[in-house]
UniProtKB/TrEMBL annotation:
Protein's organism: Cohnella suwonensis
UniProt-listed InterPro entries: Fur_C (IPR043135), WH_DNA-bd_sf (IPR036390)
Top-level division of the source organism's lineage: Bacteria
Protein name as catalogued: Transcriptional regulator
């Protein structure tokens, strides 16, 4: 089981099309370049893109109908 910090953190990848949410299984905070003098007290990471299903779906026009 993870530490208290790992349990409380919620980092996700979110599909912009279907809104499927996938967990990020590690905390990228240690890789973040925090400027001097800035004290981080809380954080969350959200990465937006397209899941495998939506990325493979045929493109449709903005009206929702194919041309």
């Amino acid at each position: 089981m993870g530490t208290t910090d790992e349990i409380m953190q919620h980092h996700h990848m979110i599909c912009l099309n279907c809104e499927k949410t996938l967990p990020i299984r590690f905390c990228p905070m240690s890789e973040t370049d925090v400027p001097g003098g800035f004290r981080v007290v809380k954080h969350k990471f959200e990465v937006f893109g397209y899941c495998g299903t939506c990325a493979e779906a045929p493109a449709q026009s903005s009206s929702g109908r194919e041309s």
